[in-house]
Write a structure and sequence with these properties.
signal; glycosidase; EC 3.2.1.21; globular; alpha/beta; six-stranded mixed β-sheet; 17% strand; binds 1-deoxynojirimycin; Rossmann fold
């Protein structure tokens, strides 16, 4: 795994330079930046906008408000539900977690977690997983799937929810976001890119103020959201934390300036549950849908609902802003309802009961009826789950051809993590405990398992067909038993795990985030005990991210290490497929495995210096994960992108063709002024509860409470706290980096086509994951950043050409002075290899047409 000589030279050069990182700068945008109104002028949105505008034009003021506001926590059958428009037969939107399958239902699948699908480095599997999840959500009548996740990105390895997302590499995460979103939305379900943005840890997530510089924002954390917008995502969920001083759900910079102007996002922004803080701040700061809708006191028990109606009547929220919220919501709805998916299925489940009958409105204990129809939406998705499970397995070590197994004489399976979960796979609510095998993390990003094939079960079955003697020793704590079992077997397979999740579940003192990077339930001691007696010890890890495993890498008796991540319901079967060589592993590590927490540079904030006003500065800049290890010259146990195969590959013939793309044009000009739709009756009297209406407390409604409602002053913070500019609906300048979905269309022009030949030089068929890294030059840039990958399936002896396309964005840096992406004049290099450091081919990158490099 030694770096190539060329790489070493460059590394030395990079290290000789100063190590300054981006410091926090004021973000360049005018105060009171108005929330951009959707134009519909973006590929795939035009028709949806036409339909949305027509629909919204028919609505009354309260009908509009009703579609923007959740009805309250557990007020309806979904995890979130908006009000409806009964007059037009339009039911409210049903929003349901989560990123790896449907939460709180039955007869659904439990897919591999995001971190696993990232490890496949397979666009095809990312897409097919999205499609399959979309089919399941649609089958239950859900309108919005609350996923996928690009925030947390994975700034720190202990981040509790990293596994819900994909990888700390923004390029890999961006590809996974785009494929997942297009998969989900192709099945008539709106995807939700979350959590926007900088929600990088669970500790203090509700009030931490994250300070970040403009460049780091663009090059790291915003990057995958740009891909999500470019992929046409219908909704984005703003996060709990503050960004440079303002809560994310009322942040003019992140929502209005970056997401809706620069990235030209045409869909709607919903709040994370309870992340909305004020009526006006959120409305003017870019929020379009309040979730779950309740959460404050009288008179409306909601920041929106009747309070928003009041604010519009008082002129505090301009009518155009309300119209824009609803047009955005309805456009997302019409966008996904095309082709085979024009109808809208009924909701056929309740998240809040497993019984067939129950209340339609649980928080009010009201309207008992059949709520669960137990619709089976699994189809044949188990096959895909098994395939992703196997193809996401990362083979980290394989000495003496320990793997694949071939009818071994005897196997000892050891460890709790190999076992069936006592009481069934869903015994612990929110997967919030650790008995038995780990196949997903904990918190809201979970789904109910239909079943869970444990490794012990699958291995026992394989052993029986091979006539292999099989023992199973479940205890992690009885080390004598573990040693006794291991010493008698020709192969000892020892299992260990580490989980994490969302902060409302605390396991063994881990409040979402992991307290450390060691294995749980004494896993390290168990591995060492087994390895002390068996010279053919195979370690299998089910972990949410990296763990400290250098001792296993070095241990002579540990012949193989496998990372199986969080594989979902087919865990054991997928593992057997790889252990026995039915599938040749293609998984590559989507994160770097440090030897200590300190190795990672950036640290999780467990204790804020001032807990009342927690604050964090991301002053490591773009240097997280492998980019930091490279810069600090810290050798990890395993690098990002690393993974072995049962065969070997040879790389040759690097070719670089420079395209004749026109030089990037900056966007310019003005938007149209803010439109309004239909005419609404703005008298207070027209917006009161209808006579005789039966309220059910605490359901959230859009009407004014009574005619004495103070429409003159409205609710929420005083109007004076908002510069008038925030309500300015006149034509606005398009930002230079904007002008198209995901930013300026010129950013996505292909500037280079790079190819190489990959040959399978071993004896079995296998899939190589060639990775392309670019060094953008200068000490402010990482040694290399991932900018391309592919999966190339090769028969023994077969060779194929792999082709990568590098776009203008791929070779640009963000310039916070000009507020635009720029290709610097620093000489650039390209590396192709099989991990972030196993570089097989490298070259300088010729300067693009019309440019010359002016040195490193
Ligand atoms: C809070 C979580 O942060 C979010 O991911 C989830 O979608 C909502 N709760 C709804 O459960």
């Amino acid at each position: 795994m030694a770096p190539s000589p060329a790489r070493l030279l460059l590394l030395v050069a990079a290290l000789a330079a100063a190590t300054a990182t981006g410091s926090v700068v004021n973000t360049p945008f005018p105060a009171g930046y108005p929330s951009p109104w959707g134009s519909g002028a973006s590929e795939g949105w035009e028709d949806a906008y036409a339909q949305a505008r027509e629909f919204v034009g028919k609505l009354t003021l309260v009908e509009k408000v009703n579609l923007t506001t959740g009805t309250g926590w557990e007020a309806d059958v979904c995890v979130g539900m908006t009000g409806s428009v009964p007059r037009l037969g339009f039911r409210g939107f049903c929003l349901q977690d989560g990123p790896l399958g449907i939460r709180y239902t039955d007869h659904n699948s439990a897919f591999p977690a995001g971190v696993n699908v990232a490890a496949t480095f397979s666009r095809d599997l990312m897409r097919r997983r999205g499609q399959a999840m979309g089919e399941e959500f649609r089958g239950k009548g859900i309108d919005v799937q609350l996923g996928p996740v690009a925030g947390p990105l994975g700034r720190v390895p202990q981040g509790g929810r990293n596994w819900e997302g994909f990888s700390p590499d923004p390029y890999l995460t961006g590809v996974a976001m785009a494929e997942t979103i297009q998969g989900i939305q192709s099945r008539g379900v709106i995807a939700c890119a979350k959590h926007y943005i900088l929600n990088e840890q669970e500790h203090y997530r509700g009030n931490v103020n994250v300070k970040i510089d403009d460049r780091t924002m663009h090059e790291l954390y915003l990057w995958p959201f740009a891909d999500a917008v470019r992929a046409g995502v219908g909704s984005v969920m703003c996060s709990y934390n503050k960004v440079n001083g303002e809560f994310a759900c009322e942040n003019e910079w992140s929502n209005n300036y970056l997401l809706k102007n620069e990235l030209n996002f045409q869909g709607f922004v919903m709040s994370d549950w309870g992340a909305q803080k004020t009526t006006l701040g959120s409305a003017l700061g870019g929020l379009d849908m309040a979730m779950p809708g309740d959460g404050t006191g009288p008179p409306y028990f909601s920041f929106w609902g009747g309070a928003l109606t009041e604010a519009v009547l008082a002129g505090k929220v301009p009518e155009w802003r309300l119209d824009d919220m609803v047009v955005r919501i309805m456009a997302a709805h019409f966008k996904v309802h095309t082709g085979n998916y024009t109808s809208r299925p009924d909701i056929n489940f309740s998240a809040w009961t497993k019984q067939a009958t129950g209340p339609l409105h649980p928080s009010s204990n009201h309207t008992f009826t059949v709520v669960n129809e137990f619709v089976d939406v699994q189809a044949d998705h188990a096959n895909l789950i098994r395939e992703i499970g196997a193809k996401s397995i990362v083979l980290l070590k394989n000495e003496n051809k320990a793997l694949p197994l071939n009818k071994p004489k005897s196997i000892a399976v050891i460890g709790d993590d190999a076992q069936d979960i006592p009481g069934g796979p869903n015994a612990c609510p929110e997967r919030g405990c650790v008995n038995g095998t780990l196949a997903m993390g904990y918190g809201s990003g979970t789904a109910e398992f239909p079943y869970l094939i444990s490794p012990a079960t699958a291995l026992r079955l394989q052993a029986s067909s091979d006539r292999t003697a099989f023992t199973n020793t479940p205890s992690n704590w009885d080390l004598d038993a573990a040693r006794a079992a291991a010493s008698k077997a020709s192969v000892a397979i020892v299992f260990a795990m580490a989980t994490s999740g969302e902060n409302f579940v605390v396991i063994d003192g881990n409040a979402g985030d992991r307290n450390n990077l060691t294995l749980w339930n004494g896993g390290d001691d168990l591995i060492k005990a087994v390895a002390s007696v068996n010279p053919n010890t195979i370690v299998v890890l089910h972990t949410v991210g990296p763990v400290i495993i250098d001792y296993a890498q070095e241990h002579p008796n540990i012949t193989a290490i496998i990372w199986a991540g969080l594989p979902g319901q087919e865990s054991g079967n997928a593992l057997v497929d790889v252990l026995y060589g039915k599938i040749n592993p293609q998984g590559r590590s989507p994160f770097t495995w440090g030897k200590s927490v300190a190795d990672y540079g950036a640290q999780l904030m467990f204790k804020a210096p001032n807990p009342a006003v927690p604050e964090q500065t991301f002053d490591e800049g773009v240097f997280i994960d492998y980019r930091y290890f490279d810069k600090a010259a810290v050798e990890p146990t395993y690098w990002f992108g690393f993974g072995l195969s049962y065969t070997t590959f040879e790389y040759a013939g690097l070719k670089i063709a420079v395209s004749n793309a026109s030089s990037s044009s900056s966007a310019s000009g003005l938007t149209a002024p803010a439109p309004t739709y239909g005419t609404v009756n703005t008298s207070a009297a027209a917006n009161l509860f209808p006579a005789g209406f039966q309220k059910i407390f605490p359901y959230v409604y859009p009407w004014l409470n009574d005619s004495s409602a103070n429409v003159a002053t409205g609710t929420g913070p005083n109007i004076s706290s908002f510069p008038a500019a925030a309500r300015n609906g006149s034509a606005q300048p398009v930002l230079p980096a904007g002008g198209g979905a995901g930013g300026n269309p010129g950013l996505y022009d292909v500037l280079y086509t790079i190819s190489a030949t990959i040959k399978n030089t071993g004896e079995v068929a296998g899939t190589e994951i060639p990775q392309l890294y670019v060094q953008l030059g200068g000490e402010e840039n990482p040694f290399g950043v991932l900018r391309g990958f592919d999966e190339i399936a090769l028969a023994p002896g077969e060779a194929k050409t792999v082709t990568f396309e590098l776009t203008r964005r791929d070779v640009s840096n963000w310039n916070s002075t000009s507020g635009n992406w720029e290709i610097s004049t620093r000489e650039k290099f390209v590396f192709i290899g099989s991990s972030a450091t196993m570089i097989r081919l490298n070259s300088t990158l010729p300067a693009p047409a019309g440019m010359t490099w002016a040195g490193a």
